[in-house]
Structure formats: C-alpha cells, structure tokens
Amino acid sequence: MDSALVVLLLAVGLPTFVALAWWLQKKRHEQLAAWAAATGWEYVRSDPGLGLVRLHRNQPFEQGHSRRVSEVLTGRWQGVPAVSYTYEWSTGSGKEKKTYHAHVVALALPAYLPVLELTAEGVGARIAKALGARDMQTESVAFNDAYRVVAGDQRVGHAILHPRLMERLLQDDALGTDWRIEGTWIASWRTGRTDTARIAPRLGVMHAVVRGVPRHVWQDHGYDPLTHGAAPNG
Known about the structure:
Blueprint: H1 3-39, E1 42-45, E2 65-77, E3 80-91, E4 98-120, H2 123-130, H3 141-146, E5 147-151, H4 154-160, H5 163-169, E6 179-191, H6 199-212, H7 215-220
Antiparallel strand pairs: 1-2, 2-3, 3-4, 4-5, 4-6
Helix pairs in contact: 5-6
C-alpha cells in the first residue's frame, strides 16, 4: 500500500477512533449517573476519599502496577454504607503491558473482623490447593466442594460459617460469588468493569453474610448488635 495512503488513513482514522472512544465513555458515565439517581446512590467517578486503591489486600488487589479506581458509586444497602467501583491494574511494560479490570462491590462492617475469604471452587482454586494453599474445611461436603475458604482465625471462620449461613451460600444466587471479610469491610469482586445489574445481587449475598455473623463473634470484637439496635442472628 502506498505510504501516503497509509498516512491519510491514519490521519482520518485516529481522530475518528478518539472521538468514538470519548463518546462511548461519555455515554457510560451518563448511564452510571442515571443508575445512581434511580437508586438513591451517588456517582462520584473517582475515589471519594476512601482510599479505595489501598482499602483491600490480596486478590485482585496489590497486583501489578498503575493501580487506580474509577466509576465509583456510593450509597447505602439496607441502611449500611456501600460502594461499587472499577479497579484497574497493569502488568508488564511496553508491548508486553496488559491491563486488567475488576468490578468491586463492598459493604462496611460495624467492627473489625479477621480475614475470611470465600472463592468459588475451580481450576485456579484446585491448583492453589495442590500447591499447598490453605483451605479451611467445614462439616458440609457440598460447601467444601463449592468453595475454597481461607480464614485468618479458623475459630472465627467456623463460627461465622455456621450451617444456616452455609445453606444460604449454596443457593443459586450466591454460588460463584467471591467475597472476603477484611477489617471493617466485606468486599466482592468479579472480572470486568462495573456492571450495575450485578450490584444488588452481590450486595444481597454479602448482607446475608453480615446478618449471619453470630452475636458472640461481634461481641468478641467490640460490637453488640443488640446495643446498637440490630437484631442478633446467632
């Protein structure tokens, strides 16, 4: 192809591509803002001072470089402070650079709790366990087959994952939902950018977990749901 023609195509195509990308991003912002307005949430786009890039540890956080958050939505779920955002990071550089995204949804906890992480069983989890990764076992074979469990404090982990909660987490809407209690948050993540259709279902699962934490576990960590007006669940 004639070099002049190549230059012409690039000259015409690049501005068109940039304009299309800008338009698509603008429409996405409008859609997210409309979702927030319809649900009583707020669309703030970037980190609203929560330190979201450093809020959580372990997967998918603290990987690679150039970490940032975007498409931030804040609000309340069943009266509990909640946040949704797109987390982005990169690996490699130059031609080897790859960028990844995860849609994170999180609920604030009323007190600090030890790490408790559930990830859906799959090839990755099986490989991790074969390499010696931790996997806390419960008395439920079905639950053990469905999830890999990592607990910072196994006593607390077993107390939280009581039979009623495990039964709830084996329901169709919960299966396949990865989540982690970490400090004063419970967070769920999924590959890809923010999907507003998935916010409510994932918050519903995490809220069930929080509601399922036994009263004595909260009390051991300086919080009493009776004193603070919430019904105990264990």
